[in-house]
Amino acid sequence: MQEAIILVGGKGTRLRPLTNHTPKPLLNVAGSSFIRHQIAKLMDAGVEHVVFATSYLATLFEEEFKDFTQDLEISYAVEQVPLGTGGAIRNAANLLRGPADAPVLVLNGDILSGLDLRDVLRRHRVRDADVTLHLTRVADPRAFGLVPTDTDGRVLSFLEKPKTAEECVTDQINAGCYVFRRSVLDTIPAGREVSVEQETFPRLVAEGRRVLGHTTEDYWRDLGTPLAFVHGSADLVTGTVASPLLARHAESLIHPTAAVDPTARVTGGSTIGPHAVIGPHAVVDRSIVGGNVTVGRGARIHESVVDHDSSIGGDCLLRQAVVGCHTHVGADNELPAQLRLSCGIRIPAHGVRVSGTAVACPTVH
Fold first, then answer.
1. For the segment 307-342, what is each residue's pLDDT rounded down to a tens digit?
2. What integer pLDDT is reported at residue 143 of this predicted model?
3. 160 has pLDDT over 80
4. Is the Cβ–Cβ distance between 55 and 7 less than 8 Å?
5. Which positions are catalytic?
6. Entry pTM
7. Rounded Cα–Cα distance for residues 159 and 169 (Å)
8. What pLDDT shows up at residue 358?
9. Quick check: 256 and 239 in contact, CB under 8 A?
10. HSE (CB half, 13 Å, CA atoms) of 314?
11. pLDDT tens, 85-107?
């Protein structure tokens, strides 16, 4: 039995307010919760049993999959106290059933990747590795921990985020997908917080274990920020990165129950949720519009997220904005880039402008 662990315990603070009531892996990406895209990919790689390492709003994962009828067994390992990445993996490993030498896939629940999972499993077996790490190259590695390897792909060390150009000894970073030999998971201390990056992996390297890097040029994106989140969703819709859940690729993914005016334009891999209404001459580009959202005449939404049960008034302009659920933005508002509106906020017409407006001031009595 091929098994996997998905780390889904984080609070997703960088995506608030979207994650105020929904764990990040359950947010809608390209028409489905992101974790369903991951599950579909795992099943495509032959995984038959997956363990969710949960913590934040843990019961919502069971609710999401209560009617899941496909040929995959799902188990839930709930953290009662924060355990870190290594501790979460160790806690989830208690529910695995494979033998000591079986390979176990481990995925971060917020990484969108084009990695061929069957290939990385095959390489792990052929090279008789204790741990195989998927590594990716980035143009500017200063925001990440570095993972240098030798000419045979053996990991040499795990380096903290570099502060200077001289410290950038490699452009390879941890891509958030691992294959562990089952017995190696049992060496992680149980019942306490453990960082797999700062404690587990460095220890294994120091002990001379076979910790190997698998570096690829595959698509890779951390969905932890709003802009990365909308870009990842759009890339799935357009086919820049594949998901087994999307049989066809297009400029948009519009739910059958949504109503889009013939004069509106929905482009760039945007998704329109169930029962949403997109008004005349509106533009939705490379954005996510949730269920029961109304977008008024002439509104323009670019690289933004509008969460469910919200409304955007006519002639509004949103760029790289996040609008929480049950929020009303009145007509003729212009939201500045990277603005986040909390759930339930109400902004009157002409209330927020970046550029000037000719609207007269109200008479004061």
1. 999 999 999 999 999 999 999 999 999 998 989 999
2. 75
3. no
4. no
5. 161
6. 0.90
7. 9
8. 57
9. no
10. 4
11. 999 999 999 999 989 999 999 99
| One-letter identity of residue 155 | V
Task: Please provide the distance, in angstroms rounded to a whole number, between the alpha carbons at the two ends of the chain.
Answer: 76
φ, ψ dihedrals at 312, nearest 5°: -120, 120
Would you state the torsion angle of the CA atoms of residues 140, 141, 144, 148, taken in this order, to the nearest 10 degrees?
A: 160
Secondary structure of the chain in HEC code, one letter for each residue: CEEEEEECCCCCHHHCCCCCCCCHHHCEECCEEHHHHHHHHHHHCCEEEEEEEECCCCHHHHHHCCCCCCCCEEEEEECCCCCHHHHHHHHHHCCCCCCCCCEEEEEECCEEECCCHHHHHHHHHHCCCCEEEEEEECCCHHHCCECCECCCCEECCCECCCCCHHHCCCCEEEEEEEEEEHHHHCCCCCCCCCCHHHHHHHHHHHCCCCEEEEEECCCEEECCCHHHHHHHHHHHHHCCCCCCCCCCCCCEEECCCCEECCCCEEECCEEECCCCEECCCCEEECCEECCCCEECCCCEEECCEECCCCEECCCCEEECCEECCCCEECCCCEECCCCEECCCCEECCCCCCCCCCCCCCCCCC
